[in-house]
């Protein structure tokens, strides 16, 4: 087939780019003709919470990526839509994650599908965002009106589709493994690379830091551990919310000097070292649908602790690959104490579960929904 993926890709950085580029490669491996159309402007700088939207790594090889889409220019949406209309791909695939993008992506999709050939399939991260704003539901409804088929990456998002559309085909396929961060390295090598003590028990909080991800809960839980002398908490990822309050909380709890703060964006070639150094990946989310961090942890076969919110317990079965706990500092503390006390071997359960999360499954869900 001829396939166009519309959304974030190089030179933009982060999980959205990694997802779209990995999806493109999977379609290519099956013999399809794939191109990605990405942004010339994704977010205006004043709306972007991080330091930069752009990668400083080399462009990915073997992918056709065209920068052509401006998220705030309606005249550009018409131009891009008409271009896809004329190009007549069999599939237009759009990963949807934020209502802000609905006018842009929904308008392009509406124009493109008028050619009578192009089928619009959306892979849904979220329909209702974690950080809600006025107009979210109206914008999500507009986007859903442009889509022919939906693939939701969590059961909770699958059920949310009914709020906006009850008729169109939809399916559930969990987030595939992020297997594009390289092969595992030894714990010794990883700790040396990151200047961490390999004799310590290492807990990892990884990814962009936003309020709904519960770092404050994790700091409280860490401060309450029965014995944390040989335990290090590594916080790795860029602040996308005010970092001052987290440092203030850590100082109040008396742990600011104990926490290892690596609060810069982690480039792709450094990701493996954080996961290979850690003993437990901790995701204390206050709300969630699914998470790409779990799929990195599965790739590196690391146990996880998640809170019972959204689709996280579906992905991390309690007692098999780690812990799914009550969403509270006390629930997190209890599970951490148990992990540190018992040191369970979850490797067999992790290897069994990770087989579910193939990119082939995602491609099949998109094509056959």
Describe the structure.
The chain is α/β, with parallel strands linked by helices and 369 residues long. Helices cover 37% and strands 18% of the residues. It contains 14 helices and 13 strands. The strands form 2 sheets. Strands 3-2-1-4-5-6-7 form a 7-stranded parallel sheet, sandwiched between helices. A 6-stranded parallel sheet has the order 10-9-8-11-12-13, sandwiched between helices. Strand 12, helix 11 and strand 13 form a beta-alpha-beta unit. Helix 1 packs across helix 14, helix 6 crosses helix 9 and helix 7 packs across helix 12. It is globular. The two termini are 16 Å apart. The mean pLDDT is 94.
Keywords:
369 residues, alpha/beta, seven-stranded parallel beta sheet, six-stranded parallel beta sheet, 14 helices, 13 strands
- The topology string of helices and strands comes to EHEEHEHEHEHEHEHEHEHEHEHEHHH
What is the β-strand count? 13
- What form results from the Cα inertia axes? globular
The largest sheet, given as strand count, sense and whether it forms a barrel, is: 7 strands, parallel
Show the helix and strand layout.
Elements: E1 2-6, H1 15-29, E2 33-41, E3 65-70, H2 74-87, E4 91-96, H3 102-112, E5 119-124, H4 136-144, E6 149-152, H5 155-160, E7 170-172, H6 187-194, E8 201-206, H7 215-223, E9 231-236, H8 244-253, E10 260-262, H9 268-277, E11 280-283, H10 292-299, E12 304-307, H11 312-315, E13 322-325, H12 329-342, H13 347-354, H14 359-368
Parallel strand pairs: 1-2, 1-4, 2-3, 4-5, 5-6, 6-7, 8-9, 8-11, 9-10, 11-12, 12-13
Helix pairs in contact: 1-14, 2-3, 3-4, 6-9, 7-8, 7-12
């Amino acid at each position: 087939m001829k396939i166009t993926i519309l959304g974030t890709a190089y030179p933009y950085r982060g999980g959205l780019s990694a997802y779209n580029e990995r999806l493109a490669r999977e379609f290519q491996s099956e013999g399809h003709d794939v191109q990605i159309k990405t942004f010339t402007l994704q977010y205006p700088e004043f709306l972007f919470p991080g330091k930069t939207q752009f990668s400083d790594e080399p462009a990915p090889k073997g992918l056709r990526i065209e920068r052509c889409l401006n998220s705030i220019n309606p005249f550009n949406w018409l131009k891009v839509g008409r271009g896809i209309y004329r190009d007549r791909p069999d599939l237009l695939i759009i990963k949807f994650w934020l209502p802000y993008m609905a006018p842009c992506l929904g308008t392009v999709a509406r124009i493109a599908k008028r050619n009578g050939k192009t089928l619009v399939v959306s892979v849904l991260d979220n329909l209702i965002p974690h950080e809600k704003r006025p107009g979210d539901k109206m914008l999500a409804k507009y986007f859903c009106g442009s889509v022919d088929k939906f693939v939701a990456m969590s059961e909770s998002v699958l059920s949310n589709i009914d709020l906006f559309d009850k008729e169109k085909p939809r399916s559930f396929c969990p987030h595939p493994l992020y297997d594009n961060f390289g092969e595992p390295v030894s714990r010794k090598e990883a700790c040396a690379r990151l200047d961490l003590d390999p004799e310590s028990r290492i807990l990892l909080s990884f990814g962009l830091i936003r309020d709904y991800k519960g770092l404050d809960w994790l700091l409280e839980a860490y401060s309450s551990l029965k014995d944390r002398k040989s335990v290090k908490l590594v916080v790795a990822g860029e602040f996308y919310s005010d970092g001052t309050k987290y440092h203030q909380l850590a100082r109040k709890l008396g742990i600011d000097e104990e926490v290892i703060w690596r609060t810069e964006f982690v480039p792709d070639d450094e990701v493996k070292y954080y996961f290979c150094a850690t003993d437990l990946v901790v995701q204390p989310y206050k709300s969630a649908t699914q998470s790409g961090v779990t799929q990195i942890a599965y790739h590196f076969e690391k146990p996880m602790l998640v809170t019972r919110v959204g689709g996280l317990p579906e992905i991390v079965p309690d007692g098999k690959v780690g812990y799914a706990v009550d969403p509270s500092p006390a629930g997190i503390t209890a599970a951490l104490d148990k992990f540190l006390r018992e040191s369970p071997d979850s490797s067999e359960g992790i290897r069994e579960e990770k087989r579910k999360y193939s990119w082939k499954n995602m491609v099949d869900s998109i094509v056959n929904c």
